């Protein structure tokens, strides 16, 4: 169980695109385009009884006519035809991704189609992702089954973050944003109506996946609650796992006759499940993006003590407030550290936490402050809010901060609010693999997510 | 924990077509699990009530026992601090009249005559079987206003004693148990024990869907479940 049986999805040696079409703009032709762009190296077979060939590629009337076993079949045909085709393909394919909708989410007829698919999964042992999903975007096996054109939705580069999403559009939007932020991903899977493969299957695979350094989960509901807790616990024991659960205001399904039953809405139980499994709870879309950006470039911190370094006093205090709100600590400098810093800083600097380097800030002073505070035992991570006003700051600052950040193995988060000039500089931080946030609140949320990952991994390690 | 006797209570209620346990049944389950409950007797008539009150000793508490009434105080089905036989007789008559007025169709199984326990800090402990995640336990403060305040925390069962303590620490009202404004520090160990027992009950007793202690009165030493309810299913 686990790792091996999702290889058809994450490491397919061959793919059949069922419903391949020569008509531009059709879902199947976008998928073919995505597959081509992703640089997938395995065999790709086109299947459609309506064509002899598409472009220069041969087109097969059925999966059976291919004449060899196929790892993954991608279904881009209307719901009514999927069951028959899948039944015929059973024994010749290891697994399928059913892209199209019109199943359980679409009335009685759709539910009947979905039930047929479930029966085939049970009887024939073929594994199915979807229906009503995007499938997989995988930078490790260079696989992309998403039916959104690359010119509209950018694909992220290779990285260590993997994403499991019940919603296809959520996965797509997050990918697009991460691509724009220069944050890479390992594997993204959208599993839709989950007639077979569910979030626990994916967590089992990703727990053992050496290319995945952290996992982010978007869920609307859970398939097998207790199994999810077990799978997420195993995964969070070896790498950070974070999750957002949406649709929080569903009424409790219990006969709410005790106070407990009345209070125990669905979300409270999900939260308890996340706690039990060591999953970092994310509050919503912003929180999800901030955590993804943080884990896309940084590792979990050793604890929750934050050092704030800035050249704007007000911004420093704002970040400190945002940190306390999320449960992070902003401890004062130790007497020794303060003495040490006073010996190198001008007397009018505010040597405390937050540390204000004022308008006299220079690249070197930032480097000094970061080195001295991160070098000791007093702090687990730093939020650096370099406001670009001081003339002493140059384009070399981001690279210098990145260099110092690398010395101590502690996360460094950049908070860089501001207008045109500041926004233009964010690319310099990104080049140094530092996550950039435009508000104190988002920087604090990111720091909180990194602190949340530490405890569990450590406690189990 | 031996659940066979607890399951017998549940089965008997189910065989009578009931969907809830009445308070003395829920308390019997708690008592069997070693959660402390006040001494009590059930009286079918006023003479029986006098006898029970004599055996317990005044002051006593008088409560309605009805499978149709889940929140007794809403029909004035609870009378605290009854000092003597004359007061008991008076409260008995008033309670019968009030119920006849408010819920004329409610089946009255009898009356609970119970030891009046001293004042202490009040907490709620509940446990439910969630259709997705299975047994879950809740801890909270706020007494009767708990649904309004929602100052509660949840854990999946089974849970460790450490998790039970974490649950207490997570609610805003926690300082009320640890000496807020000069109050005495309450027996947190007794609360943790009750949380663990409730988690075990919901996990192990078949046919029980929800069980709740509200309130558990907590002292410097020990804690007593003065009211309890349970939903079957």
Number of strands of chain B: 11
**Residue-averaged pLDDT of chain B:** 94
CATH superfamily caption of the largest domain in chain B = ATP-grasp fold, A domain
Query: N-to-C terminal Cα separation of chain A, in Å?
Result: 24 Å
Strand content of chain A: 15-25%
Radius of gyration of chain B: 18 Å
For the biggest β-sheet of chain A, the strand order reads 3-4-2-1-5-6-7
User: How many β-strand runs of chain A?
Assistant: 19
Give the CATH class of the largest domain in chain A. Alpha Beta
Please provide the ordered H/E string of secondary-structure elements of chain B: HEHEHEEHEEEHEHHEEE
* Tally of discrete structural domains of chain A: 2
Spatial gap, N to C terminus of chain B: 21 Å
**Average of the residue pLDDT scores of chain A:** 92
Summarize the main sheet of chain B.
Answer: 7 strands, antiparallel
CATH architectural type of the largest domain in chain A: 3-Layer(aba) Sandwich
Query: What is the tally of helical segments of chain B?
Result: 7
Flag low-confidence runs of chain A.
252-256, 456-461
What's the story with the biggest beta sheet of chain A?
7 strands, mixed
CATH architecture of the largest domain in chain B: 2-Layer Sandwich
SSE arrangement:
The complex is a heterodimer of chains A (461) and B (233).
Chain A: H1 7-10, E1 14-18, H2 27-38, E2 43-47, E3 53-54, E4 57-60, E5 70-75, H3 79-89, E6 93-98, H4 107-124, E7 127-129, E8 135-138, E9 143-144, E10 158-165, H5 168-181, E11 185-190, H6 199-208, E12 214-219, H7 225-236, E13 241-245, H8 259-263, H9 266-277, E14 280-282, H10 285-297, E15 306-310, H11 313-325, H12 335-344, E16 355-356, H13 363-375, E17 381-385, H14 397-408, E18 412-415, H15 420-431, E19 436-437, H16 440-460
Chain B: H1 4-15, E1 20-21, H2 23-32, E2 40-43, H3 46-56, E3 60-65, E4 78-82, H4 85-102, E5 110-115, E6 121-130, E7 134-141, H5 146-149, E8 152-156, H6 161-170, H7 188-204, E9 208-218, E10 223-225, E11 228-232
């Amino acid at each position: 169980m686990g790792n091996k049986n999702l290889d058809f999805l994450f490491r397919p040696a061959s793919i059949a695109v069922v419903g391949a079409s020569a008509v531009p703009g059709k879902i199947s032709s976008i998928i073919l385009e995505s597959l081509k762009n992703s640089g997938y190296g395995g065999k790709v077979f086109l299947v459609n009884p309506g064509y002899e060939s598409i472009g220069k590629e041969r087109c097969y009337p059925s999966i059976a006519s291919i004449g060899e076993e196929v790892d993954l079949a991608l279904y881009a045909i209307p719901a009514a035809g999927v069951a028959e085709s899948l039944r015929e393909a059973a024994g010749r394919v290891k697994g399928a991704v059913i892209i199209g909708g019109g199943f359980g989410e679409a009335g009685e007829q759709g539910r009947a189609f979905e039930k047929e698919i479930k029966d085939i999964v049970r009887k024939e042992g073929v594994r199915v992702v979807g229906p009503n999903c995007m499938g997989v975007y995988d930078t490790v096996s260079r696989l992309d089954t998403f039916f959104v054109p690359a010119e509209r939705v950018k694909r992220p580069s290779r990285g260590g973050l993997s994403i499991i999403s019940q919603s296809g559009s959520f996965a797509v939007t997050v990918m697009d944003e991460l691509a724009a932020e220069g944050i890479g991903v390992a594997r993204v899977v959208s599993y839709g109506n989950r007639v077979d493969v569910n979030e626990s299957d994916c967590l089992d695979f990703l727990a053992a996946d050496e290319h995945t350094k952290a996992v982010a989960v978007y869920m609307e509901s859970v398939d097998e609650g207790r199994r999810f807790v077990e799978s997420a616990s195993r995964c969070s024991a070896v790498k950070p796992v974070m999750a957002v659960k949406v649709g929080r205001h569903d009424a409790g399904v219990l006969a709410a006759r005790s106070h407990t039953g009345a209070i125990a809405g669905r979300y409270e139980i999900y939260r308890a499940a996340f706690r039990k499994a060591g999953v970092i709870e994310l509050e919503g879309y912003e929180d999800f993006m901030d955590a993804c950006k943080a884990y896309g470039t940084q590792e979990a911190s050793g604890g929750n003590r934050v050092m704030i370094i800035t050249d704007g006093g007000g911004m420093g205090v704002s970040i400190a407030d945002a940190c306390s709100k999320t449960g992070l600590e902003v401890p004062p400098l130790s007497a020794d550290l303060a003495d040490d810093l006073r010996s190198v800083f001008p007397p009018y600097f505010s040597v405390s936490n937050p540390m204000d380097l004022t308008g006299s800030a220079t690249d070197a002073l930032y480097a000094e402050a970061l080195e001295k505070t991160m070098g000791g035992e007093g702090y687990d991570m730093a939020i650096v809010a370099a406001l670009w006003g001081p003339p002493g700051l140059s384009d070399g600052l981001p690279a210098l901060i990145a260099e110092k950040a690398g010395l101590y193995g502690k996360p460094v988060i950049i908070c860089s609010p501001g207008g045109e000039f500041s926004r233009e500089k964010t690319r310099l931080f990104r080049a140094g693999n530092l996550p950039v946030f435009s508000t104190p609140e988002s920087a604090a949320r990111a720091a909180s997510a990194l602190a949340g990952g530490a405890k569990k991994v450590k406690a189990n390690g | 924990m031996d659940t066979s006797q607890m399951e017998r209570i549940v089965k008997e209620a189910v065989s009578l077509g009931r969907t809830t346990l009445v308070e003395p049944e829920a308390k019997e389950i708690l008592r069997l699990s070693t959660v402390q409950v006040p001494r009590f007797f059930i009286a079918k008539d006023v003479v029986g009530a006098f006898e029970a009150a004599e055996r317990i000793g005044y002051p006593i508490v008088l409560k309605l026992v009805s499978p149709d009434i889940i929140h007794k105080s809403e029909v004035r089905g609870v009378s605290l601090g009854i000092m003597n036989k004359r007061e008991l007789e008076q409260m008995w008559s008033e309670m019968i009249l009030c119920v006849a007025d408010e819920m004329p169709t409610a089946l009255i199984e009898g009356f609970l005559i119970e030891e009046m326990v001293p004042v202490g800090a009040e907490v709620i402990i509940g446990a439910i079987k969630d259709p997705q995640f299975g047994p879950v336990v809740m801890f909270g403060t706020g007494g009767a206003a708990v649904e309004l305040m929602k100052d509660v925390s949840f854990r999946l069962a089974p849970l460790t004693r450490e998790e039970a303590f974490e649950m207490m620490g997570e609610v805003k009202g926690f300082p009320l148990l640890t000496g807020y404004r000069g109050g005495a520090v309450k027996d947190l160990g007794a609360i943790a024990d009750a949380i663990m027992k409730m988690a075990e009950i919901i996990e192990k007793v078949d046919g029980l869907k929800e069980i709740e202690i509200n309130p558990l009165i907590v002292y410097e030493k020990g804690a007593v479940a003065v009211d309890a309810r349970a939903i079957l299913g």
